[in-house]
Amino acid sequence: MTLSVALRGRWLGLALVCASLLLVPLGTGVGSVGLENLWPALLSDHTEPASRAMAWQIVWDIRLPRTLGAWCAGALLGLAGAVAQGLFRNPLADPYLLGSASGASLGVASALALMGGGAGMLGGASAAAAVSVFSSHWLVRLGLTGAAFAGAVLAVLLTLALARGVQHTLRLLLAGVIVGVVLGAFTSLILLLSPDSLQAMQAFLLGSTGFVGWTSCLLMAGVWLLCLVAAWALSRVLDGLALGESTAHSLGLPLAPLRAALVAVLALATGTAVAQTGLIAFVGLAAPHLVRAVVKVPHGRLMGLASLMGAVLLAAADLLARGLIAPQELPVGVLTAVLGGGYLLWLMHRRTGPGGLL
Amino acid sequence: MHGITLHLAAGRWTSIVGPNGAGKSTLLRALAGLMPCSGSVHLLGRPLAQWQRGDRARALSWLGQNEVAADDLTVYDIAMLGRLPHQPWLSPPSGADHAAVEQALRATQAWDWRHRALGQLSGGERQRVLLARLLAVQAQVLLMDEPLANLDPPHQADWLLLVRALVAQGKTVVSVLHEVSLALQADDMVVLAAGRVLHHGASNAPATHAALEQVFDHRIHVRQLDGMWMALPRLQAP
Asked: Which one-letter DSSP state was computed for residue A63?
């Protein structure tokens, strides 16, 4: 018996919510102090108050925000991926297409180079370490996060200026590619001139959820909710655009302002995620694909499901990144890139199916 | 295109024909208000520019040539997009919307695969779904660019019957067709050549047939078979 589309969509949503509910407690228990050590310390009556306090601190201050942060960043990227693929009518579009990733990189590289110059006040010899992109020093962190976000937003604005607005999808796409290449070149130049920043920059480029705190977590959750509501409200435009611009226009959709709103949602979701966790590859690309592999839904329902899928993907990847070579950690961006690359290869070979790429 | 002055009668089916590159699709796009033009287009007696966006979308529906469609959407979802002009923003489809979609899908015999994704259908089946999307708008004026692309002869015949039924209901249909024999089944024909209107008249008028033969370099001749006008290929130039 085949399930109806609506029912399959609901089952998928439910499965993803369950996976999230499973991943969050798992995420709080995995790490250098393993599940078997941490939970008994918290729950047992015989634990010393000091040990219990430390265990609680590990869970509450480090692991829970980190795990929830990974979930939120994944949700933002999944949502942004669904918006990007609908907006550009291209299943290979990813959230970074409008230049936000390269803009954020340039922002971070610039900030690192500037802070690196004044590293003496931050700790002398360990200049690069002191200004690590995921440093907990709040001033540095705010500076780098702010720089990443500002860079992402400015890059998107530059793309829009080059494309002369949002009327032409192809022009927008080309402008995004050009901005990506040029800003990438500037980032390389800055790193060449300021080699001290290389190590810290690498952490940003690889992506990490390791130092996401409660503030970042709440910020991402708030932005995700805002973007989700906006994307859902705009989803009919994406459905209409799927029939081509002429048909969408003939259906009475005011394309220019609605497309501008979608670009704003895309930029805000991507910029926020990138600023908090660095460049995490493939989650935004793969999440909508994975949803569509299970159920074909209009964009209204795709937004929520792609968000949940992205959240589960990144939370699971984060768990794996911590667990695979524990007590060492893999950068989560490396893991998502490897897994995402494998998924794309599989998609390419799935030539005959309706979801095939070639 | 230059110097086009046309009055397309309401409640009739007009087909636009001409050789490749004559400007058939361009003319249709201009009529739909999808491309800028220096003159003016009037829809139901009112300049197109004066129509509110929603009113225009409800009065005039458009089916483009080789219209793309997201393969991931189901047949039903695609047809429901035709109801967008009737739905207030953010409100779910009403009973009337569902009824219109069902009627449109049944009219193009696509109802049975309404739950399938468009990507799983053949070219002809997809075209019938896109036709259903056009019909679901329930507009007074229907513009179609090559609506018979990929349709097999039985479904081409069904389309002809469908258009005649629409015209009988008082709707106005304007279509671009490269199959001259099918275009000859329309009430009126506009014959285009090199961006200009060569002839505009009833499909069964001898002057129209002469214009058709002229515009296709006399490589066709128009003959009546079983009461229907047909364009037959002339294998040797006269």
From this structure: I
Mean pLDDT, range A18-46, rounded to an integer? 63
- Omega within 30 of 0 (cis) for the link into A327: yes
| pTM for this entry | 0.84
**Residues in B touching A236 (Cβ below 8 Å):** 84, 89
CB contact under 8 Å between A247 and B77, yes or no, is: no
Q: How confident is residue B163, by pLDDT bands cut at 50, 70 and 90? A: very high
The CA–CA distances, whole Å, from B190 to A265, B13, B157 equal: 46, 11, 22
Residue A30 has pLDDT above 60, yes or no: no
CA distances from B44 to A273, A354, B5, B15 (A): 51, 42, 16, 18
The vertex-B110 CA angle with A6 and A232, nearest 5°, equals 35
The token pair that represents B18 in the structure block: 């001409």
- The answer to whether A76 and A207 have CB atoms below 8 angstroms apart is no
3-state SS assignment for residue B188: strand
Q: Distance from CA of residue B234 to its chain's centroid? A: 27
Residue partners of A274: CB distance under 8 A and separation at least 6: A96, A100, A101, A104, A148, A149, A152
- In this structure, which amino acid lies at residue A164? R
Count residue pairs from A and B with Cβ separation < 8 A: 75
Give the number of other CB atoms < 10 A from CB of residue A349.
12
CA distance A217 to chain B (A): 30
List pLDDT tens digits, range B46-89.
898 899 989 999 999 999 886 666 777 889 999 999 999 999 88
Q: What percent of chain B has pLDDT over 90?
A: 54
Contacts of B140 (CB under 8 A, 6+ apart): B44, B59, B60, B170, B171, B172
- Cβ count near A244 (within 10 Å): 16
Check if A236 contacts B (Cβ < 8 Å): yes
Q: Are B83 and B97 in contact (CB under 8 A)?
A: yes
Phi, psi at B63, each rounded to 5°:
-125, 115
Q: Using one digit for the tens of pLDDT, what is the confidence trace for A83-133?
A: 998 888 877 788 888 888 899 889 988 888 887 643 333 333 333 444 445
